[in-house]
DNA sequence: AACAGTCCCAACCGCGAATGA
DNA sequence: CTCATTCGCGGTTGGGACTGT
């Protein structure tokens, strides 16, 4: 077994630390709060961060007077309380981006989330697990199988493009569009490939639409469940071809 | 109305990596 | 170099909401 010195040291530290924490918690009967956050806790966290900023979560938790772990505070802030969190249904465009980026990077939720302003990795992960995996289950195929990936690439994504093109004007193309990325113009017509559409939306590997205002009526809005894009029978027929 | 089954999401957990003393 | 602490990621789960019978 190959293990680096650092890894070995980390293992030892982890075990020792865990034992110590458990020991102290037992002895002192410290009541670390778990479960759903109360309004008061939220207010404490928000007001503390607005005054002192985020980071150093363990000490932040103590200083803010919260009987929570630093981890719990961080999660609550990042996934729920942050002011730039975008709520509501995942739009068609966002669905498209998730499908496209997942096909490239797999379960790299945080990386995918970087390309969806206001969406958290947790939200995207939940979306994938509840919606996309549900379809794979219905079709009785593995979500990582080539068959299912092909379904996404050749059926779902083109359908999404059609729907997006039919519901959006050219004016609603992403605001990072530039003349050198002229594929966008054709991408919004029904004959484009999903690849060119994808690159037009999120600018390849760069975060290209970070300036989109989540609250304005831009191309991000107008969510629509992708279940409405096709029927289950239709999907099944395609799979059996 | 009552119950059972399913869906969905907030929150937790374990782990590895990074950072600082 | 070692040890302690913190951060961030991906996987999992508990329970409320919703839907069907």
Can you walk me through this structure?
This protein is an all-alpha fold and 241 residues long. It has 2 domains: 5-81, Arc Repressor Mutant, subunit A (Orthogonal Bundle), CATH 1.10.10; 92-240, no CATH class. Helix content is 58%, strand content 0%. The chain is built from 11 helices and no strands. Helix 3 (57-63) packs across helix 4 (70-81), helix 5 (92-105) packs antiparallel against helix 8 and helix 5 packs across helix 10. It is elongated, with a radius of gyration of 22 Å. Mean pLDDT is 68; it is low at 25-29, 170-193 and 200-228. The structure holds a DNA duplex (21 and 21 nucleotides). Residues 29-81, 82-132 form the Myb-like domain. It is found in: Nucleus. Keywords: DNA-binding, Nucleus, Repeat, Transcription, Transcription regulation. This is MYB transcription factor.
Main sheet? none
How confident overall, as mean pLDDT? Answer: 68
Uncertain stretches: 25-29, 170-193, 200-228
Q: Sketch the topology as an H/E string, one letter per element.
A: HHHHHHHHHHH
Please report which band the strand proportion falls in: under 5%, 5-15%, 15-25%, 25-35%, 35-45% or over 45%: under 5%
How many independent structural domains? 2
Measured between the Cα atoms of the first and last residue, the distance is: 47 Å
Enumerate how many helices there are, as a single number. Answer: 11
Class of secondary structure makeup: mainly alpha
| Helical residue percent band | 55-70%
Number of strand elements: 0
- Global morphology: elongated
Q: Provide the gyration radius in Å.
A: 22 Å
């Amino acid at each position: 077994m190959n293990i680096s010195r650092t890894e070995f040291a980390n293992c030892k530290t982890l075990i020792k630390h865990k034992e110590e924490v458990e020991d102290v918690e037992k002895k002192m009967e410290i009541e670390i709060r778990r479960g759903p956050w109360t309004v008061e806790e939220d207010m404490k966290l928000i007001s503390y961060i607005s005054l002192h900023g985020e980071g150093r979560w363990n000490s932040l938790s103590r200083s803010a007077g919260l009987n929570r772990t630093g981890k719990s505070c961080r999660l609550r802030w990042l996934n729920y309380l942050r002011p730039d969190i975008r709520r509501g249904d995942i739009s068609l465009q966002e669905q498209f981006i998730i499908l496209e980026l997942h096909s490239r990077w797999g379960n790299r939720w945080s990386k995918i989330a970087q390309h969806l302003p206001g969406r958290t990795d947790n939200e995207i992960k939940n979306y994938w697990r509840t919606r996309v995996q549900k379809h794979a289950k219905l079709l009785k195929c593995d979500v990582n199988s080539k068959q299912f990936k092909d379904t996404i690439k050749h059926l779902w994504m083109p359908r999404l493009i059609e729907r997006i093109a039919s519901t959006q004007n050219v004016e609603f193309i992403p605001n990072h569009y530039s003349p050198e990325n002229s594929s966008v113009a054709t991408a919004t017509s029904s004959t484009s490939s999903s690849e060119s559409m994808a690159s037009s939306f999120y600018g390849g590997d760069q975060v290209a639409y970070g300036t989109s205002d989540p609250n304005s009526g831009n191309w991000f809005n107008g969510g629509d469940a992708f279940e409405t894009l096709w029927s289950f029978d239709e999907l099944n027929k395609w799979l059996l071809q």
